[in-house]
Amino acid sequence: MKAADYKKLKIDLFAKTKDIRQYDKETGNYYKSIVIMSKRADQIAADLKQEFQETSLQYASNSDTLEEVFENREQIELSKFYEQLPKPTQLALYEFENNQVYFKDPETNA
C-alpha cells in the first residue's frame, strides 16, 4: 500500500484505550498478536521510508546553495505529508483489527 492510500484511511491519530481481549481471537494468544502487529509495523515503516527516499530524490539538486537548502518547498511539503500520516504502529493495529494482515504460525502450521 502506498502512502497516499494510508492517508485515505480513517484512522484516529490519538491514543485510545483498547480491549486487549479482542486481540487473542485470531491467534489464541495476546503476545503472538502483539508480535504480529509489531512485525507488520516494521514492514510498513520500511516501506514508507523507502517510498519517501525514492520520492525525495526527484527533488534533490546537485548543487546546494544556501538559498536552495532553505527554499526547497517541494521537499518541505513532501516531509510534511509523511509527518501527517498515521504512525506505522497505528496502521498495523488498524490492519490487524480489520483482518488485513496475513500471518502464518509455524507452531500450528496454520
Describe this structure in words.
The protein is an all-alpha fold and about 110 residues long. Helices cover about 55% and strands about 0% of the residues. The longest helix has 28 residues.
Low-confidence stretches: none
Strand content: under 5%
Count of alpha/pi helices? 5
Averaged pLDDT: 82
Q: Give the end-to-end Cα distance, rounded to a whole number of Å.
A: 25 Å
The tally of beta strands, per DSSP, is 0
3D shape: elongated
Structural class computed from helices and strand pairing: mainly alpha
Largest β sheet strand count, sense and barrel closure = none
> Cα-atom Rg, whole angstroms?
18 Å
- Order of H and E elements: HHHHH
- The helix content, as a percent range, equals 55-70%
